[in-house]
Amino acid sequence: MSVRPWIAAGFLVPAIVLLGTLVVYPIGYSLYRSFFDAAGTGFVGLENYVQVFSGDGFTAVKNTLVWVIVGPSVATAFGLLFAVLTERVRWGTAFKMVVFMPMAISMLAAGIIFGLVYQQDAERGVANAAWVTVHDTFAESSPWPGARPRPDSGLAESGGGSYTTESAVDREGGATDLPLVGVPPQELADAEPAKKPTARDRAGDEVVGTVWLDFTRGGGGESGAIDQREKALSGITVEAVRGGEVVASAETGDDGTYSLPAEAEGAKLRLPASNFAEPYGGVNWLGSTLVTPSIIASYIWMWAGFAMVLIAAGLAGIPRELLEAARVDGASEWQVFRKVTVPLLAPVLGVVVVTLMINVLKIFDLVYIIAPSATQSDANVLALELYLSSFGGGGNQGYGSAIAVVLLLLVVPMMIVNIRRLRRENRR
């Protein structure tokens, strides 16, 4: 039965009106607006497009390309890995549910979560708490971070955070004491009182002395002299240096005393920087160097589950007899995966990658929320630059419209790829 043209038009007109109002008109107006200045009254030609590829705009372009290359490929790789590894385990469904769960979280909530995860303070940021724990497990911490000599103590800074005596050791002159300050007294509550080397210590050829905190709580005492209430600094390495080489070294005991062999005679004493290094503070995840990779990692955490679900659906449609035939022919599991599974999943993988590429071109909320203001310009992307320039205080909608047109031009090839793939599948 034939359908009258006016009936068909009646159904099509509302869709055409909505399409024109919500899609065609905004695209046309953005293209038109991109050739005008911020006020929209002066024609500037391609000046806004030149601005996109220079200055802050160029940084946004570079970061967007990094996002397009890294984000979708890594998220798809994790999705493929999860889908394949959990295919034949009993708890695979539960695992997939946990991996997919971040998709239920909004970008705003995910940004707040990872803003806390990447906190520099290891007591607040989960990433640095784990990283500092691993570091401190394999690396020794300095015994007295922040300690330093008094200006008149005879110790001078010798580069790299170490301190060296201004004159060589003269054993005949008595003990070589090394007073330090800069240690909070409460950290020495359990420390032993500092002890002066005894006559027995001086009887041999050894070079002796004491390293202690030259500070008395409540005041009093004599600067440079060991008082009864002053505490010893144990575990400090003392090196005897002659001609730039270490000829002897020792470590202070619980009472702060040290004893160097006779080779130390005539050498200068050095307290190496390892005695005073500040505690390891972790990685500056949101610094200018790592801010973009860190934010991409949060995106992968969210979208790897999406990739996994689509790939798992494609994996379920692969004929099992093909996999079994490959195994019967002697192929290893890696060969089956690489030469059978992946080629058969190629259409699904293509759809996932292209979908995620389109998605990352629109990303701005994660960057806007996670990146601190100090490094937001280093993590800038085109979508965020569009928002900031048009609505975030920039007030330049001509420049923002140019960015929107550039994003459209980047999305169109991906849309064409998807359309062609759908047409090929419909012909089968």
From TrEMBL:
It is found in: Cell membrane. Gene3D superfamilies: MetI-like. GO terms for biological process: transmembrane transport. Residues 61-418 form the ABC transmembrane type-1 domain. CDD domains: TM_PBP2 (cd06261). PROSITE patterns: ABC_TM1. GO terms for cellular component: plasma membrane. Residues 139-177 are annotated as: Disordered. Pfam families: BPD_transp_1. It is a multi-pass membrane protein. Keywords: Cell membrane, Membrane, Transmembrane, Transmembrane helix, Transport. The chain crosses the membrane at residues 7-27, 65-85, 97-118, 300-319, 340-361, 398-419. Belongs to the binding-protein-dependent transport system permease family. PANTHER family: BLL4140 PROTEIN (PTHR43227), DIACETYLCHITOBIOSE UPTAKE SYSTEM PERMEASE PROTEIN DASB (PTHR43227:SF8). This is ABC transporter permease.
